[in-house]
Amino acid sequence: MPSKFRAEGQKSWPPYVSCGLKAPGAPGQRIGDITTLNASMTNRRTMPRIRVVQTKPTQVKINVTILNELGLHARPAMAFVDLAHQFESDIRVSKGAHQVDGKSIMHMITLAATQGTELVIEADGPDALEATARLQSLVDNQFEE
Amino acid sequence: MKLSDFVSKDAIIAELAATSRDDAINELVDAIIATDVVARSLRDQLIKQILAREKKGSTGFGKGVAVPHVKHEKIKHMSACIGVSQQGVDFNALDKEPVYSVVLLLSPQDKPDEHLQAMETIFSALQKDTFRKFLRQSTTRDAVWDLIEEMDAQQIQG
């Protein structure tokens, strides 16, 4: 899991944790728009999975840096758009004031994100957390080029 | 960056004869070679590379446009040519629709940032419904070039 992933306004790793790990925050604590239930229950017998319950559509915003030498050219931009389409959430990507639809290849190419460019990815929807985590992972792994 | 910085006016084909992707790419590469922007000796290699790129994933990104492209170490200056098809080209586009405007971009190997900026310029234009519509309606090289100059002068809306 990408360690840099943060929900907006949050300082520690949010509740998308695997079985048996203790999540930060008390049970039921509000983290942004997400409520974690049973987050402190670590006993596998009574609570084999820590669930993340999202009480309403969630907005998550993350920062990423393009590491590829060739930048975000057509093929990685396509990989980004393909992945973004797997999520219900709206995905917006911005470079400075220029914001585009992260599900449109034609829009994404207009970012002209060269190596070292910082982008902000915003997801808005029920699967915003997973979407941003997966997209961050894709960018961090240099689109597996 | 402006379209007229890298689009080769003499390589504009207002009426593409090709109706298949491979033929269209051949036609466009021949057009740009005829202008001496690119060495004739690179012809076959460029076509092979462009087609290999298309097979990895179509650059027919939808809305009737395709932007095949290639980087090559023997290309010193970025250049592009534009082909307009009246009958439509089967480009294996993502939306499965025929392509009416093809922009072929040839970039130097060692200038990835310039390549991205050129792609940005191309897609900023192609995103505009009016630009696509006018491009498709252009039946002469001069008409296409006028449109490019209008785009560069930011006279094309929406």
Q: What is this structure's SSE topology?
A:
The complex is a heterodimer of chains A (145) and B (158).
Chain A: E1 30-31, E2 34-36, E3 52-54, E4 58-65, H1 74-84, E5 90-95, E6 98-101, H2 105-109, E7 118-125, H3 128-140
Chain B: H1 3-6, H2 21-34, H3 43-56, E1 65-66, E2 69-72, E3 79-89, E4 99-108, H4 112-126, H5 129-137, H6 141-152
Parallel strand pairs in B: 1-4, 2-4
Antiparallel strand pairs in B: 3-4
Summarize the model shown:
The complex is a heterodimer of chains A (145) and B (158). Chain A is an alpha+beta fold and 145 residues long.
Fold and architecture overview:
The complex is a heterodimer of chains A (145) and B (158). By secondary structure, chain A is α+β, with helices and mostly antiparallel strands. Chain A has helices spanning 74-84, 105-109, 128-140; strands at 30-31, 34-36, 52-54, 58-65, 90-95, 98-101, 118-125. Chain A folds into two domains: 1-56, no CATH class; 58-144, HPr-like (Histidine-containing Protein, Chain: A). Chain A has three helices and seven strands. In chain A, strands 4-7-5-6 form a four-stranded antiparallel beta sheet. Chain A has a three-stranded antiparallel beta sheet with strand order 1-2-3, with no helix packed on it. In chain A, a hairpin with a 2-residue loop joins β5 (90-95) and β6 (98-101). The longest helix of chain A has 13 residues, at 128-140. Chain A is globular, with a radius of gyration of 16 Å. By secondary structure, chain B is an alpha/beta fold. Chain B has one domain (3-152): Mannitol-specific EII, Chain A. The longest helix of chain B is centred in the C-terminal third of the chain and has 15 residues, at 112-126. In chain B, 42% of the residues are buried. The model of chain B has no long low-confidence stretch (mean pLDDT 96). The chains are: A alpha+beta (145), B alpha/beta (158). At the A-B interface, α1 and α2 of A face α4 of B.
